[in-house]
Each structure stands twice: as structure tokens, then as C-alpha cells.
Write a structure and sequence with these properties.
Alpha-Beta Plaits, 227 residues, homodimer, Rossmann fold, 5-stranded antiparallel beta sheet, alpha/beta, 9 helices, 2 domains, binds adenosine-5'-triphosphate
């Protein structure tokens, strides 16, 4: 898989390096030479060029990729233009980063195959995590249905999985338990996380455990609210 | 729970509104009057003030919150200063948004309880999703162990859950299936997503199904690579 990352801000640079580390072929593009230089040891190829210049993109073969990710932040017209040009040059999938809801709509209409809004997505996840303090992380599987990592409720401490009968009592599926264990000398205070991926009926929930459950959001709220 | 959101850029505004929608008490702060005006109908209180001015923060009672989220983007000194002042004024949890790895380290050292990097986090998730093309989304539960949403591999199409024997063959736990169903008139081409949260032995996998599995990353890669 060949990728082009256009615009080496924080998002573009992180993405280009992560893709390259994952073994992908990555060409990183920016019109700022310093950023191009900084990227060149970590990607397949780093090129200084103006991504709104169709001739330059063609000349450097930037369009010969499977996926192009455009992240020219502040200059929206340039972001838009680079997106349209890359689609025109035949790039099968163009993912463009948006900086506002209005702009994400514009980008989708002018041809971006996918639009990414880092600030919005991260803010929504943080809000969810703050609103339900026991939630450590979550993944929405479907509207109203999620995988949720949450701190074991106090009422569960010291009880066995069998006793708790979570599936029947709460209509939730407990799929794993994350436990924090001390490692090395006690004085060092170091810990490691161990995942119990097959919780058994006689396993006991400990106060610092993190439960990973699947269920509809109402049932999960119910479980957390009962405290 | 009372929240203060300092800095109403895209991140701050999205967060303030999401928290307010979730029923929390939210005071939104910015020194740009237009942004304060735009926010005031969607939060408990919107205040124009300079978040680096300790007296102003005190006067408006901004420090009387449980959690403050500081997201003053471009002006790093202001971002830092607001963070330090809020901790000094006794805010129990201050979450600060960072715009670079170096800055996130500085913020952690000067007292931020948590540091958020939207561009980095989103770029890492996108890289993961691109590197494993069948992955629709994922949640890392623990190092090397994740919940993954992936397109049903071709070899699974038309087979029953029982036949596939996923747990034993791949050491992966299939926890749900997302199916795309047509809705309304066929000519409209509209679809809806239906979640099968309790996959049964005789359920048949269809080509457009999305499987939600839990397992260690190696086993999931194995499953995807076999294609
Ligand atoms: N016409 C262009 N061709 C190529 N690169 C461009 C062009 N215009 C701007 N860029 C580059 O796009 C990059 C990203 O833009 P900018 O830094 O404004 O975005 P940003 O949204 O702040 O990024 P991030 O949030 O990811 O840090 C910059 O490094 C800039 O040099
Ligand atoms: N001293 C200050 N006190 C209060 N607000 C401030 C101060 N300095 C800057 N701000 C506000 O912080 C907000 C966010 O800053 P900025 O837009 O630079 O960040 P950003 O990282 O681009 O935001 P985002 O990416 O979330 O859109 C701006 O609306 C700005 O008015």
C-alpha cells in the first residue's frame, strides 16, 4: 500500500511516521523545506512541493498512491484544492482533514472520500469519558451500543463473577478484566497491567480492576448509576 | 460535576457543548467576545476574560469547578500559565491540550493532571485503520489486545458461526455482528445498520457484515492475513 501525506503539521507528521513504522510506503509532502527535512529519515520519500500545483504533483508522481491524506491546516483553499486535484489525478482514496463542520461538509461535497476532524472527535471522546467518570475508554459499536472500559463499581469489589451474574442482572456482557499488579520491589511502586481475557466464574473482582463490557448504553448507565 | 472550558477553539467549543448536552454544568471561557457570544446559549455560563489573569479567574469563580480543561492553542505560554494558575487556585483536575510532544511533557511537569493531543491521537488511530484495511475501528484494551471491528473476511461469507468455530480456530472472541440492511424503497438505496449482539451458532455471515471481535493483535492479524 502506497500513501501520500500532504501537509506535515502535527497530524500529518504523526500519521506519516506511524504508517512508515507499520511498514507502508509513504511519501510525505510539504512546501516548507524544514518540515520536509525533518520527515525524510522516517518515511520512504519526503518531497518539497506546492500541493496546489497539479504539474508539480504529477512530476513527482504523488498521484501514484493508493491513499492520499491531505492535512493542510490553516489554508483552507489550499486544502480544498489539493483534495480536488488528487481526485482528478486518479487517487482512489483521498482523506482530508477538516477544521470545522462547515468545511467538512464542503470537503465531502467536492470529492473527499473521507473527512477527519481530530479536534471534534477527541473532544467528543473526552466529554464522554468525563460525563461518566468510571469510564476509562469506550468504542461505539453501533448507535446506543458500545464496548466500555470502566472501573469496577464498589459494589462489585470482592465478589465473584458467578455471584455478580452480570449478564442476567444488567444485560451486559463482561468480556475481559484488566488488573493492575505490582511488579519488582514494592518500594519501587511499579505496576503492570494484566488482561484476563477469559473471566471465569470463580474469579474475584478487585478494587483496582477495570472491567471491559459490551452492552447498550442504557444498561451500562444503569450499572454505573446504581452506585 | 462542574466544568470550566478555557479556550473556545474547535476543540474547546465541541467539548463545552458536548458536556452541556450531557447535563453537566459548564462555564466556557475565552478572551474573544465573539466566541463567548457564540457559546452562551449552549452552556451554563459563557465568560469573556483573560485566563492568564489570576484576579479575573478568581473574580468570576472559574476556579470553583471540579475539572478545568485548558485549550488555548497557539499561545503556548498562555496555555501553560492558565494551567498553572488553575492548579494553584485549587482546581482538582486540570486537563490541558498539547500541540507537540515537547509541550505535552512540559505541561505534565508543570502540573497538568492530564494532557490531550487530538492531532496525535487521531493520526495514530487513522494509521492503524489504514494499515489493516479490513479494520473499521478498534479499541486497544491492553498492550497487544484489542476490540476490533473488521469487515467479514471473504472466506467467512455464507458460513455459519458454528461452522467457522472462530474461538477455537483463531483464538478470537466474536462478540457482535453489524449488518447493513436496506430500508425503505430499494430505489432510494437507503440502508440502516443493525447490531446482532448475541451471535447464535446458526447465524450466517453475509458479505457486507462487520464482525466485532476481541483478541490479541497477533491472532487478529492472522485472521486477516489468511485471505
Ligand atoms: N500549498 C501547500 N502545499 C504543501 N504543503 C502546504 C501547502 N500549504 C500549507 N502547507 C503545509 O501544510 C502543513 C499543515 O498546515 P498547518 O500547520 O496550517 O496545519 P495545522 O492544521 O495547524 O496542522 P496540525 O494541526 O496537524 O499541526 C504546514 O506544514 C504547511 O507548510
Ligand atoms: N489568555 C487567554 N484567555 C482566554 N482565552 C484565550 C487566551 N488566549 C487565547 N485564548 C483563546 O483560546 C482559543 C483557542 O486558541 P486557538 O484557536 O489558538 O487554538 P487552536 O489550538 O487552534 O484551537 P482548536 O484546534 O481547538 O480549534 C481562542 O479562541 C483564543 O481566543
Amino acid at each position: 500500500m502506497k500513501y501520500a501525506v500532504i501537509g506535515l503539521g502535527k497530524f500529518g507528521t504523526t500519521l506519516a511516521k506511524a504508517l512508515a513504522r507499520g511498514g507502508a510506503e509513504v511519501v510525505a509532502v510539504d512546501n516548507n523545506l524544514d518540515l520536509v527535512d525533518e520527515a525524510k529519515d522516517e518515511v520512504t520519500l519526503a518531497v518539497k512541493l506546492d500541493a496546489t500545483d497539479e504539474k508539480e504533483l504529477l512530476a513527482q508522481g504523488i498521484h501514484k498512491v493508493d491513499v492520499a491524506i491531505v492535512s493542510i491546516g490553516e489554508n483552507f483553499e489550499a486544502n480544498q484544492l489539493a483534495t480536488v486535484i488528487l481526485k482528478k489525478l486518479g487517487v482512489k482514496k483521498v482523506i482530508t482533514r477538516a477544521t470545522s463542520t462547515v468545511r467538512s461538509k464542503i470537503l465531502a461535497l467536492i470529492g473527499a472520500d473521507e473527512v477527519i476532524s481530530p479536534e471534534e472527535e477527541t473532544a467528543m471522546r473526552l466529554a464522554q469519558r468525563l460525563l461518566v467518570p468510571n469510564i476509562v475508554d469506550y468504542l461505539e459499536l453501533s448507535e446506543g451500543y458500545s464496548v466500555v472500559e470502566l472501573k469496577a463499581p464498589e459494589k462489585f469489589h470482592g465478589k465473584t463473577i458467578k455471584e455478580l451474574d452480570i449478564r442476567n442482572k444488567y444485560d451486559i456482557n463482561l468480556i475481559a478484566i484488566k488488573r493492575i499488579l505490582p511488579v519488582g520491589k514494592p518500594s519501587e511502586g511499579k505496576t503492570k497491567i494484566v488482561l484476563n481475557a477469559v473471566p471465569r466464574p470463580n474469579d474475584v473482582i478487585e478494587p483496582s480492576d477495570i472491567l471491559i463490557v459490551v452492552g447498550d448504553d442504557k444498561s451500562i448507565e444503569e450499572l454505573l448509576r446504581e452506585e
